[in-house]
């Protein structure tokens, strides 16, 4: 062991902000943290350059906002920690996925290369769902051809992923597509900014880039998908793969000046915010499902077996930790749904009552909803306000609340929405189990873990003991763990996780009486799930009508 303490920095890039944390290598103690809100947030309505109106379902970001996290949050976290920057031995980052940056050969984003007036030049955030039509065609053709990689993704390819978004760029702005030298995951782009080398990480390549057994979908398949699209992977995507926990390079002089960290320290291979959280929660063994719950939820787990799970987001060899199959599923909207409801559907009297009680509106509604018995509100909701990521994999689906009457109150709907997200998680858990992938423990990370009603509902609905990561910075701590491995402080990620990870086991346990009551509601949820998600086109038709109406207004 070194004579003095050593430290690492983990930087977590979320949907609206980037967070940095300084962590002690020996025991995972978090000593300082700082947050930088993205000035441009999520661009969903108009381009920042010329105000051009965007079509529905677009979600863009500005890459300079990501650099600002390195210039502000990292040095602020180091200052807050009180550690000597000279004792920092490594830095690692994680990112939302699939978030894509169209780049020139040197890593310059197209939005910074003279194309700021073109929507496709910007970063396409994970929640950009405007490529659903392309995703449908990708899946349909793969099924028709019997492509061997499709079952590894539950039989459906998401509009959020590299291929669908790349095809949208190809078809809607061919000039920019041709100008794009590299179609880069933001997780790898930020590492490129730090160390000057482009290294494609194994996690996003497998889950979001459809890389299986060392191969991407064939040029023949791509050409059948769209004439001229055949070289997509060969020309714009293929690149040497870096394994998780490995060193991508060392911190450049320029990045050292940004961050205040020593030039030449280790920079770890990039990772995804959800997957990197599993080691932070010490969840690297089979049977442990980790749910990173925020605006959306991503479910990740390792297993000793390879199975084809319908509607999963993917299974990748070494996708979470080396030596295990890493599985991913997810829900596109969770915290976003609760936030939407409080901002759009709650009378002013509730906000006034919350303020008088010294509560946030979420806390006020949670307290009121907690007083109810299971089923008392008479409602069941579908949690598809941002579409469905698993197991239907259809972002044309939309939200629904059934059972409302003139007696329905805001706290009733709020609780029904909380329960709907738990039902969505139960669908995922049961689908994994039915496919031969056991789920024995449910571990929650993310800000929503602070809501005790929500956590108890999840335990009751899933009938699983619910553990809580013992850190408010799960992804950033997970990145710090990978930084320690990249710097050589630990031989591998599981060893580092054992020393640096933090979790409180079985904080919430299922109550049998409530669980039985939820079984009845879940049965109704499944009826709605299968009717609107599998058997009809109602929600898709509504989306089409909306798009037509917007087009008629010039928006």
Descriptive account of the structure:
The chain is α/β, with parallel strands linked by helices and 555 residues long. The protein has 19 helices and 22 strands. The protein is globular. The relative contact order is 0.12. The mean pLDDT is 96.
Output the number of helix runs: 19
Largest sheet: 7 strands, mixed
Stretches with pLDDT under 50, minimum 5 residues: none
The pLDDT mean sits at 96
Distance between the termini: 62 Å
Task: Give a brief outline of the structure.
The protein has 19 helices and 22 strands. By secondary structure, the protein is of the alpha/beta class.
Please tag this protein with its features.
555 residues; alpha/beta; 7-stranded mixed sheet; 19 helices; 22 strands; 18% strand; globular
